[in-house]
Amino acid sequence: MLNWAVRYYPIVRILESEGLLKKGSLLEIGSGPIGIGLFRKVPFIGCDLSFGFEPKPPMFPMKASATELPFGNHIFDAVLSSDVLEHVPPALRTQVVTEALRVSKRLAIFAFPCGEAAWESDRELRDYYRKSNLAVPEWLEEHMLAPFPGPEIFAGVTGWTVEQIGNDNLQFHAWMMRKELSRVFCLASSAGIRLAPRLVESTLKRADRSPYYRQIFVLRKHHNSAGA
């Protein structure tokens, strides 16, 4: 749960600054069965190839591929993709970005582990699972299949401004992922997020410093490109 808070709290702040936290149409790509619904309590569409369990409100689930979204052009105020692109084969990553921008009319947010140091951190986490005789999660095995995406994935984007924001200190991330193997820690952190979300967010924000495990890329459409 704490890992989810680290991932989504910065995105929530971005949506709030854009006036899209409590209103507006939003698509989350690769949402799983919950997605940002833990933190944004208004309806949104979550698309994924499959859902591990019955999706929960306020999400409206839709099975779809990120490389071929079943939506028209420019119909969502915001499109979000959190920790998804690293699971996409490198040859298809640009296509995912292109599709997300196609269906967004003003804002797109892409967050993903970025760079060799982040990849090495996950390799060490996989080794930790193995040495502890624990089953390696499927998502972690997938992280090892290819280098993580980087800023170059947006090099060919036109008509959008791109802002890059660092997220999730590397050392803190490594500590947190090991601590979350403890049920007691997960229960305690979940209770903290539920009972004192502002305090947890403030604490995580102060701890969010370089070197980063994840980068968040915020793309805003140029005003003169709104109908393009």
Q: Could you characterize the architecture of this molecule?
A:
This protein has 228 residues and is an alpha/beta fold. The protein has a single domain (2-223), classed as 3-Layer(aba) Sandwich (Rossmann fold). The chain is 38% helix and 22% strand. The chain has helices at residues 2-17, 90-103, 116-131, 138-143, 170-179, 183-195, 197-207; strands at residues 26-29, 44-48, 59-63, 76-82, 104-113, 160-169, 212-221. The protein has a seven-stranded mixed beta sheet, with helices on both faces. Helix 2 links the parallel strand 4 and strand 5 (104-113). Helix 3 (116-131) packs parallel to helix 5 and helix 6 packs across helix 7 (197-207). The longest helix is centred in the first third of the chain and has 16 residues, at 2-17. The protein is globular.
- Quaternary structure annotation: single chain
Q: Do you know the CATH topology?
A: Rossmann fold
CATH superfamily: Vaccinia Virus protein VP39
Strand content: 15-25%
Taken together, the total number of domains comes to 1
Rounded radius of gyration (Å):
17 Å
Keywords for this structure?
228 residues; Rossmann fold; alpha/beta; seven-stranded mixed β-sheet
